[in-house]
């Protein structure tokens, strides 16, 4: 579910930009297609590392200390609580980095702790989620996955509605300072044009306008 309120929520961080883009997209639906450059087909990077976010579930394993091993959710404030360690920040860290922080904290109580952190439920931080707004069947925020494509996103949201201007959709790339790209969802979904499939990047926002004619 997309968080729509609060300092760290969707509108709190991205609201003004998205509302402006949505308004521009509606105007484009009336006056013609947007003139943004086409989104590049290849955008994924091979060095991507998963970042933990609120709502993730993490399995903490402390070697030779089963009483300290536990599965816990990452709270909305981005922290976790495990035996002997309270309010440890997990948000924004890789599993490796979180494990090292836990070893440091547990080192006050046990000798040479060895910790492994395994993420078992994936949500990711708000800044890396893929957001789909407008004329999608199920507009929502999605956790980013390595090598995720626009087709993957469309399958997750159930495609576009009958009222969508699929080829007038706009991709907002946060990783490039909010640069705007055009994407051809109608060609991809209804005409089977695989050439219209493009990579998505963490933090992308897809705005699908309504067709007015």
Structure description:
There is one protein chain. 23% of the residues lie in helices and 23% in strands. It contains four helices and ten strands. The protein has a five-stranded mixed β-sheet with strand order 7-6-10-8-9, sandwiched between helices. The radius of gyration is 20 Å and the shape is elongated. The two termini are 31 Å apart.
Number of extended strands: 10
From the spread of the alpha carbons, the general shape counts as elongated
Query: Per CATH, which architecture of the largest domain?
Result: Roll
Number of domains: 2
How are the strands ordered across the major sheet? 7-6-10-8-9
- Under CATH, the homologous superfamily of the largest domain reads Outer membrane lipoprotein wza domain like
Q: Can you count the helices?
A: 4
CATH topology annotation of the largest domain: Outer membrane lipoprotein wza fold like
H/E series = HEEEEHEEEHEEHE
Give the termini distance in whole angstroms: 31 Å
Computed Rg: 20 Å
| Oligomer designation | single chain
Biggest sheet record: 5 strands, mixed
Low-confidence stretches: 1-11, 25-31
Question: CATH first level of the largest domain: which class?
Answer: Alpha Beta
Percentage of helical residues? 10-25%
What is the residue-averaged pLDDT? 88
